[in-house]
Design a protein that fits this description.
With about 425 residues, the chain is α+β, with helices and mostly antiparallel strands. It is about 60% helix and about 15% strand. It is built from 6 helices and 12 strands.
Amino acid sequence: MIRKNTVKIFAYIGVVILLFGIITITRGEEEIQDKTAASSMAREELEEKIQERAKELEDLRPRLEEAQQQLSTTQNEKSSLQRDLNNIQGNINQLNLSLRADELTADKLSLEIKSLELDTIDIKSSIETKRVAIGQILNEIMHADQKGLGLLATFLRNKSLAEGVLEAQTLANFQAQLAIDITNLRALSDDYVKMKEDASKKHSQVVYHQDNLQNKKIIIQDQKSEREILLKVTKNKESVYRNQLSELESLQEKIADEIEALDAVLRTKIDPATLPPIVAGVLEFPVNVGRNFITQGYGSTDFAKATYRGNWHNGIDIGSPIGTPILAAEDGEVVGIGDQDKYCPRAAYGKFLVIKHNNNLVTLYGHMSRHAVKKGDTVTRGQVIGYMGRTGWATGSHLHFVVFAGPTYYMGLTKSCGPMPYGGDLNPLGYL
């Protein structure tokens, strides 16, 4: 009779321990629910604002596409003063829309970060509550073990298997519940880490779009200045523009001939043994648009044969709207930077930038609207180094991307266009 009573007492103690653990966790969950309810209104407001920004971005997309289509149509028209003026105005319109897209995107990301912060606060509170509850339950287990209430002691203490099972079942159920709680705690911890990582990535994206905003505002002002200069030098007369255009075409051909004459010699000095294997991925695509946006390939292209006396295009052209971020193709050092429009407006690379990489390749980025780095800077693969434009000899916004064999590259002076990057050029598509 005494033994049976003892068994019941032990069973009751196990039940009490289990109930204590469940009550402790339940109370913690109730506290979490209270905190969640308190922040639900803030979260709902955030979600509503996020959806508003998303809708505005969605509505903006067709307007951006229409502006770009109008620009493409204008660029394909025959050269004229009005076409150039329309082109500049089209760039300004497109930039303003793009600027608004960056504003909305940065705002939306900031709201998403705030929402994540609320989630991480809730999860952190849940983690702490569960840790306390589990700690209290573990203390009860240790207390029970110290009094001989452990699973092994329970079986040894009883004469029959049935009595031992009766006592042990409660502790077994409790241990199973404890395992579930610990698993849930681990899942909460993983969610917390992931949310912190997501918030960090979104913060980097906010900085990216805010930088774009500031630079696009400057590019817009540059476009307005270009329009004023064009009107001033042509006196808004087509005849004056035509005379200037004829002189410009002569200068463009002269500079192109000079570049090709030197680059052709330097191509013969390329030593493949000093270069990395021709494998895709050695260099990153310098614009986040993909190969479908390549408007002219490398080498003796149809356009080069019809336009350049040297019949050679020393890089590839990637078309995208003015203000599109340009990325470093690989880690390296900025070894050259310039603006040839100061010497020969609309006749050469315009605003350009050169990066020397550790793999013995050198990359050139031409026709930029703005630089985002300076000479001597160390850059990393995928870093924004500037923005696409139509400076130099460019009828529309695009990036002229060249890959030189490192040992052949140098900066030299031209007869009529200031400092010029030269080198033995390679087909970029082999490395991209």
